[in-house]
Design a protein that fits this description.
The complex is a heterodimer of chains A (474) and B (137). Chain A has one domain: tRNA-splicing ligase RtcB (Alpha-Beta Complex), CATH 3.90.1860. Chain A is 35% helix and 25% strand. Chain A has 17 helices and 19 strands. In chain A, the strands form four sheets. In chain A, strands 7, 8, 9, 11, 15, 16, 18 and 19 form an eight-stranded mixed β-sheet that branches. In chain A, strands 1-2-3-4-5-13-12 form a seven-stranded mixed β-sheet, sandwiched between helices. In chain A, helix 9 packs antiparallel against helix 11 and helix 11 packs antiparallel against helix 12. Helices cover 27% and strands 41% of the residues of chain B. In chain B, strand 3 and strand 4 form a beta hairpin. In chain B, helix 1 runs parallel beside helix 2. Classes of the chains: A alpha+beta (474), B alpha+beta (137). Chains A and B meet through strand 4, helix 9, helix 11, helix 14 and helix 16 of A and helix 2 of B.
């Protein structure tokens, strides 16, 4: 793998072979060791992304880079529609708008510890996780779902499933424009209807945490984060509806790509011009799935609030700090031109002054939520001008796996991961043992390494660290 | 099974293309369950067609995933018929027998989002048919 170091945490892969542009990646020494250990599999995926037509230099990955399918996880790629730029459903991923939202509270850690068991049970009951546990307390007609696909969480808030302030604290107001329910298939509706307000499994979770360290007082103050105060982090996406949308459009794009002369070095990168009937249809369907995901996290938040109230915290308010996407494609203006930015396991991280940010965050930059693993910590960062200059306003989205799921289960086989976490003061409620074992701490890189590279490279500013107290898993 | 960092993968080998598709079903079930049912009373039929073998395999695995996760049916046995439909095109008719999903009893391992086309190649040589599949989980 041919690359050169541009700074302490930044590297460039010069254009070669079929690459249309240079690629760039961010890594600490430790992350670089991980890339060597995987024989640069994810950097080769980044090179593949750089072959797509109309890509704007550079093709990028964030410090939480790891091996994905098609795009590497942590991948960011912008395409210019006026230069034949393409859209790739595989570049968004099956879980369209998989993302996270963080709720803050004025509950003190000590107060929570006294009712921790009760709260853990209430949350597990209130937020269905795993499979086959749909909501029994919430029903929606097909017409109502169509409205959610267009409008996102707003209709749910109007029906009482949230606070009016919530919607303004969601990326893009919780509504990607251009959504069209007609671009979403009957099968996708069928899969999505019973799953709205459910967590799913795999790496999805709901975590009750406390703020254990603040690094940037000004930003923490703006975000409402104070040491020892309780937060709730929710990680879920567009469930079966999004998976179905991606499946259908990847197949359609595979058939269409040759007609537009799009050469594919990996079929999962199937792409068509943004300005083509296929590209436009996909963007309509993808926006619908993204709005479903925002609404899904909204409904989960509502039932989380109810669980807190039922566990004795009815006097306290859970305020939505921010909700953001990890997997999507959005039109944004960078360096004076409008481009379609694909983020596959990456976070939008707009810097201070950007219009799309809630007014109260505009002076410090967008909240960037970076979940770690369930045994250690997660981080809150702020978007930076550096990210606007270098990464199309993007930053890291998580710790990144370093151990396969199969290996993690093998390592955990003779251990009691739930018991070990309980010893550390972390209560786990899960639908089954398998997802807990495969999501064990050791399966992930240390999020602190990712944050070191992100903060060090100036593409995200460290604000606070959060430690888990309760984990609900699928 | 393949060691993929973020997701799950498997390699399939079989004497015939029909058997390769059934191996795909078995591998999918092994990803989804620790103790899957060996038989069942329920019956289902799947009919699919695709422009090539790879797309048909992805559609097959995704249809089975839908049956398991959304319809609550675990396919324990299959009889598969494949037919060429012109060019590289193929159609598939599968008769499935299986059982209703029982998460705890079958040792459910977690949701599968989709089969992917990443690194997917269905081909044959002197030893038979083979394929490698990565699932997004």
């Amino acid at each position: 793998m041919n690359f050169e170091r541009l700074g302490q945490y930044k590297y460039r892969i010069p254009r070669e072979g079929k690459m249309q542009v240079d690629a760039a990646f961010y890594a600490s020494e430790k992350i670089l060791d991980d890339l060597v250990a995987e024989d640069y599999a994810s950097l080769r995926q980044l090179q593949n992304v750089a072959t797509l037509p109309g890509i704007v230099e550079p093709a990028l990955t964030m410090p939480d880079i790891h091996w994905g399918y098609g795009f590497p996880i942590g991948g960011v790629a912008a395409f210019d529609p006026r230069e034949g730029g393409v859209v790739s459903p595989g570049g968004v991923g099956f879980d369209v708008n998989c993302g996270v939202r963080l709720l803050t509270s004025d509950i003190q850690r000590g107060e929570l510890e006294r009712r921790k068991d009760r709260l853990a049970d209430a949350l597990y009951e209130a937020v269905p996780s795993g499979m086959g546990r749909g909501r029994t307390d919430f029903r929606m007609s097909r017409e109502e779902l169509a409205e959610v696909l267009v409008e996102g969480p707003a209709p749910l808030v109007e029906r009482g499933f949230g606070e009016m302030e919530d919607v303004g604290h969601i990326e893009s107001g919780g509504k990607l424009s251009g959504a069209d329910p007609e671009a979403v298939s009957a099968r996708a509706y069928e899969r999505g209807l019973p799953q709205l307000g459910t967590l799913g499994s795999g790496n999805h979770f709901l975590e009750v945490q406390y703020v254990d360290e603040v690094y940037d007082e000004e930003a923490a103050e703006a975000f409402g984060l104070r040491e020892e105060w309780i937060t709730v982090l929710i990680h879920s996406g567009s469930r079966g509806l999004g998976h179905q949308v991606c499946q259908e459009y990847v197949e359609r794009f595979l058939e269409a790509a040759p007609r537009y002369g799009v050469e594919l070095v990996d079929r999962q990168l199937a792409a068509t011009p943004i300005e083509s009937p296929e590209g436009e249809d996909y963007l309509r369907a993808m926006a619908s799935a993204a709005n479903f995901a925002f609404a899904n996290r909204q409904l989960i938040s509502h039932f989380t609030r109810e669980a807190f109230a039922s566990a004795g915290f009815e006097e306290h308010r859970l305020r939505l700090l921010y909700d953001l996407a990890h997997n999507n494609a959005k039109f944004e203006k960078h360096a004076g031109r409008e481009v379609l930015v694909h983020r596959k396991g990456a976070t939008r991280a707009f810097g201070p002054g950007e219009e799309d940010l809630p007014e109260e965050y505009r002076s410090v930059g967008q909240p960037v939520l970076v979940p770690g693993d369930m045994g250690r910590y997660s981080f809150v960062l702020a978007g930076t001008e550096g990210a606007m200059r270098e990464t199309f306003g993007s930053s890291a989205h998580g710790a990144g796996r370093k151990m396969s799921r199969r290996k993690a289960k093998k390592v955990a086989r003779d251990r009691d991961v739930v018991g070990e976490l309980k010893e550390k003061g972390i209560l786990v409620r899960a639908a089954g043992r398998a997802t807990v074992d495969e999501e064990m701490s050791e399966a992930y890189k240390d999020a602190a390494d990712v944050i070191e590279a992100t903060h060090g490279a100036g593409i995200g500013r460290r604000v606070a660290r959060l430690r888990p107290l309760i984990v609900v898993k699928g | 099974m393949l060691d993929h960092t973020a997701d799950v993968g498997f390699e399939l080998r079989a004497a015939t293309l029909e058997d390769l598709f059934d191996e795909g079903r078995r591998a999918l079930i092994m990803v989804a369950f620790e103790r899957p049912p060996q038989d069942g009373e329920e019956e289902r039929t799947i009919q699919l067609s695709a422009p090539d073998r790879e797309t048909l395999l992805v559609r097959w695995l995704n249809e089975l995933t839908y049956l398991i996760q959304d319809a609550g049916f675990v396919p324990a046995g299959t009889h598969i018929l494949l037919e060429e439909t012109g060019g590289a095109g193929l159609s598939l008719i599968a008769s499935l027998t299986g059982a209703p999903i029982l998460l705890e009893e079958y040792g459910w391992q977690g949701e599968i989002k989709s089969a992917t086309f990443h690194g997917l190649d269905v081909s044959n040589d002197d030893e038979g048919w083979h394929a490698q599949v990565i699932l997004d989980v």
